[in-house]
Amino acid sequence: TKGPIKLSTYLINFKVGDIxxxxxxxxxxxxxxxxxxxxxxxxxxxxxxxxxxxxVHKQVGNRYIEKRINVRVEHVKxxxxxxxFLRRVKENARxxxxxxxxxxxxxxxxxxxxxxxxxxxxxKKNAPITVAPVPYEALV
Length: 140
Hints:
The protein is α+β, with helices and mostly antiparallel strands and 140 residues long.
């Protein structure tokens, strides 16, 4: 984005334990994370006036190493990865209370997407079309 950095960037509160996404902002080079960490998600372990310390897991060979990096607040934003989980918890609590009220049992586990149901395709109004490759022409 062009122009000055929005003031709201500096007014966001970060607390220890917050889950954040690291997204480098090219307009500010100070406190910029290394390119490896761009797009990674981590947990805040330290907060200072202009930066946050983030724990990120980095794959090195066959293991993951816990890296602690210090990044300025311009390069960090709160992650939405936990919002879906919290929304699901509230929805499940509501459904559970409703099922208890009605005296029925309910399955709250997530189910993977099931395959489409079987059906027949009629050829009466839907005649098959033969597809053939277009011959190559050299336009020289």
